Each structure stands twice: as structure tokens, then as C-alpha cells.
Amino acid sequence: MEHQEEFTPEQSKILEMYVSNLDSNIFVLRNLPEVIKGALFSRYSRSVLGLRSLLLKDFILNEEMAFDSIVGEPVTNAGDEQFVAIKKAQNFYDRILDGYGDDSIGELGGTHLAIENVSMIAAKVIEDCRIGGSPLEKSTRYIYFDQKVNGKFLFYREPVIMTSAYRDLYLETCDMLFETYGRLIPPLTEKIEKTFPKEPDVSQFAYNAALRAKVLDCLRGLLPASTMTNMGVYGNGRFFESLIAKLQCSPLAELQESGRKSYQELSKVIPSFVRRADPTHKNQLSYFEYQERLNHEISTQVSHLKELEPMNEAGVRLIDYDADAPEKVAAALLFSGSNAGLHELQEHAQGMERIEREKLFRSITSIRENRRHKSPRALEHASFTFEICADYGIYRDLQRHRMLTQEKQLLTCDYNYYLPEEIVGTEFEADYHKAMQEAKVAFDTMAKALPEEAQYAVPMAYNIHWYFKVNLRALQWICELRSSPAGHPMYRLVAQEMAKQVSQVFPEFESFFGFVDYDGYQLGRLGQEIRLVEKMQARRP
Questions:
Q1: CA 274 to CA 277: how far, in whole Å?
Q2: pTM of the model
């Protein structure tokens, strides 16, 4: 199901200058300067409007934006000198790619792609293509997802399920989850407001924003993975070519369609960079065959492992690390200021007492004033593998980090689910449990025949099993960022736990986690919202 926006003939004529398609849920921005596109995508993540409506309302028709003077006249005339130059550049890129096949050339051109009304499952697959692309997704903590369009909740009607015997079961389950979500918002808001009343010195705007985030953080687990979301993705040509190839090879119909539409729209703007993702191109055909054979081989091998025990309990466990990590990090820290070889420095570091290495690490970390002061790349010489079992909402937040290796298993209802402590012992708890249990019955029924497609019915509160392989420098960034007070309380716990476990194994690394926040917060978003209000007030004339 696609929710189509409606525009007047006059609005459509204006929008045609700046978007590649007025009807499709996937389209490209064009004839817009980077400052407009960046601002538009930033605004997009916190709006219920589609990107085209937002462009009209907040930019084109907003007199304060002075849109015409910023954008100027769009290039539409085939005889225009600029138009001719663009065509020449395109032909040049085609010749280079044909003659040399240098993939890095594909990184020299990029564009903004809007992807609307796709499921959260599709959004995660798109965001997993990390290098060369920057995605921004509609937030579940700022936007209410209980709206209906034409009397229907906004979730993906998976075509295989919709033509199967499970159609009614699927629709009833997703409707039930959305209804429970929407029904609990008002009473839970009232309860949390009474429990944590507004302080006199806190603005109403900041308090309301923090209160809404708290409520929606508690209830987002009721939303099924089929929930529709919107995305803005900026990427270079190489990124988009890889993304399209991956989407078109997916076993899920939604991802195949998203890949096909993305190729169609991007071909209108950066055709030279994505042409090898054409479904009929030899590269795409070869890649599809490779993926089919790869999936077959993995499935064959996995079929012999049914007797192995799964990780059933939610939690984080450090399962692999290099015992020589401290010595390697110390040697790498000393390398740039020395004329000695790295091997010799590693031998030197192995002869150091632990207290000496700890002193070296503290001398480096003591000059950091905040988490944005990134540590030297020497920390990348230590790597860790974590196995995590946590709810899908946490996975959606932590999965977005680029500098790591990660892989997940299929979404299921086998690993229990997260129950927010704000709901425990309240009149809402029974409704929450009932919704989770009904969803599990529906999933188990569908998964017997459709294990891939049944994922769409899984509520976000259910735990998913995945792993992180990450170096110390990236881990430092993740743990300090995701433990901040404004974060969701559950992914804060995961970040805190990863930092604790590394520090337990290597106490001398503890100083690298100096800005990890281990405190607990009731309205954690409040401080950030207050600072936002203060910034807005300071900018007023």
C-alpha cells in the first residue's frame, strides 16, 4: 500500500522542477543547492509530511526562506550551455567507466534519494549499506505512528502474505498492534506526567518534547516491523550502485521493488554511476547468480547445526578479543613520534609494566574535553566481538554505526520481548503482554511456511540476535554517544555494558571510556530539549 500525496496543478508544476517523480514513493531531488537539500533532509526526520509536501510548505512557499533567490532558475532547456555541459560530462564518465572500470570514479558524483512508505525492515537493509551513504530516517520518538490514511494504519502489506492463506491473520495482527499502541499513548502520557511533573524553571516546550519522547520510547515496541517509515539518503554513485544491486537480490518483494524504483529514479539524475545496476546488465546478472549460490551454500551448511543451543537470554557478551591489544595500542600510539619500527615498538610495549601502559593511555585521554575529541587511530589496533540479544528497537538504533562489522539473524518471536519498567505493575501491562502474545501466535503460524515474510508481523519489542565486531576507537565513540542522557534507556544499557566488559578484561583501557555516562535518568531527553530551547531563544533578534 502506498499513501499518495495530492497536489494542485500549480503545485505539481512547481514540484516537477525539483523532484524526479510526483507519483512514486521513491524519487530524487534535483535543481536544488546543497544547503537546501541538507536543510530539507534534516527537517524531514521530524515531520509527518512527505518530502514533497515539506519542500512546498517549509521551503518553496515559505517567504522567510527566500527560496527563489537561493535556487535561481532550474536547468530545463536542452539548448542551455549548462545542460550541454552536463551531458558532455555524463558521456565522459561513461567512456571512463567503460575503458577503465575504476569503481572509485563512481564516488565523484552523488545525489539525494527520498524513499517513502517503506517498512522498517527495508529501512534497516538500506542503512546497512554504510560506506558512501548517509541515511536519515523518520524517528519513532518524535513522531506518533498511530495515524490512519483512508481508514488504514500505515504498515506494509507484504504481497506474498496478502495473496496467501495468512492474509487476514496478518492484517488483524498488525491492526491490533497499532490499535494497542495508539490506545495506550494518552493514559501513559498522563501517568508519566503525574509521576514526573514539570519543574517551574523548565519551559513547557522542552518538557512536552521530553515527555513525548519518554512515552513513545516506552510504546515503540508495540509497532510491528511492517510499520511504514520515510528515509532520506544522500550517497555517491558507487554507494547507490551497490545498494541497488543488494536490494534487487533480496528474497523480499519490497526490497526488490525498492531497488528497481531506485534504479529508475537515479538513472534520471546520475545515470552513468548506476547503469551497471540495471537488472539486465551483465554485472547485475552475475551478482544475482553469486548471491543465489552463496545463500544456497550457507543454508546447506546451517541445516547441519540444528542441535546447537541459541543465545536465549537478552544481554551483551564479549566473546572475542586480542590478548595483546594493550601492547599493540601502546606501540601504535608511539609510532608517529618515533623513528623505530612498529615491530620493535610492540616488543618494547610488551616489556612495559601494565601501570606504565596505563599511564601512557591516561596521558592521551586526559586532554580530551568532550566525546567529540576523537582518540588517535592507534586505538584501531584493538578489536572486540560482542554478541547481543536485545529488542529490535535497540538494534535499529545501534545498527546505524558505520565503522564496524555486524550481522543479524532473522526477526522472530523466539527470544522474548522488552517490557518497559514504566508499564510494569500498571493497568497497561496486561494489554502490552496480550498484544505481544497474540503477535507471537500469528508469527509462529506464518513462519512455518513464510519465515522471511513473517518478519513483518514481529513487534519491535521482541529481541533479535546479532553481533558487533568493532575496534576500540569506534567502540569508544559508540559507547560515549549511546550512553548519553538523551538516549533510549535500553540502548544506553547496551553501550554501558560493552564499555564495562572491555574495561574488566583490560583495566588499562578504562580511561578511553571517560565520557561514558553510567547514570540513570527518568526524563533523559529533557536536558537536551532545554538546551535546544535556549539556543532558539538566543538566536532571536
A1: 5
A2: 0.84
H-assigned helices in 115-166: 120-127, 159-162
Beta carbons of 32 and 71 less than 8 angstroms apart: yes
The CATH number of 9-139+228-299, from 4.10.320, 3.30.2010, 2.30.30, 3.30.1360, is: 3.30.1360
The string over 169-208, giving b where at least 16 C-beta atoms fall within 10 Å of a residue's C-beta and e elsewhere, is bbbebbebbbebbbbbbeebbebbeeeeebeeebbeebbe
Q: What is the mean pLDDT of residues 376-398?
A: 95
Set of cell numbers at residue 81: 550551455
Nearest C-alpha neighbor of 122 from the set 261, 285, 289, 241? 261
Higher pLDDT, 30 or 156: 156
309 secondary structure, DSSP code = P
Judged by phi (left if over 0) then psi (alpha if -120 to 50, else beta), residue 483 lies in alpha
Q: What is the pLDDT of residue 75?
A: 44
> If 0-12 CB within 10 Å is exposed, 13-18 middle and 19+ buried, where does residue 279 land?
middle
Query: Cα separation of 275 and 286, whole Å?
Result: 14
HEC profile of 164-224: CCCHHHHHHHHHHHHHHHHHHHHHHHHHHHHHCCCCCCCCHHHHHHHHHHHHHHHHHHHCE
Partners of residue 315 on adjacent β-strands: 389
Cβ atoms of residues 267 and 280 within 8 Å: no
Condensed to tens digits (0 to 9), the pLDDT of residues 269-312 reads 888 788 889 999 998 999 999 999 998 898 888 877 777 777 77
What the block records as the C-alpha cell of 499 is 564499555
The 3-state DSSP class for residue 141 equals coil
The C-alpha cell at 259 is 531497488
Q: Is the pLDDT of residue 401 over 80?
A: yes
Q: Which residues, other chains included, contact 273 with Cβ-Cβ below 8 Å and sequence gap of 6+? A: 93, 106, 109, 236, 237, 238, 240, 241, 266
Can you read off the three cell numbers belonging to residue 188?
501513559
Q: Can you spell out the DSSP letters for 210-262?
A: HHHHHHHHHHGGGSBTTBEEEEEEEEEHHHHHHHHHHHHT-SSHHHHHHHHHH
What confidence score (pLDDT) does residue 78 get? 47
49-68 residues labelled b (16+ CB within 10 A) or e (exposed): ebbbbbbbebbbeeeeeebe
DSSP 411: P
CATH topology for the 318-408+464-531 domain = Gyrase A; domain 2 (3.30.1360)
End-to-end CA distance of the chain: 46
Q: Residue range 63-69: average pLDDT?
A: 66
At 482, list the grid cell. 549511546
User: Range(s) for CATH 3.30.1360.170 in the chain?
Assistant: 318-408+464-531
Angle, alpha carbons 114-30-92 (nearest 5°): 110
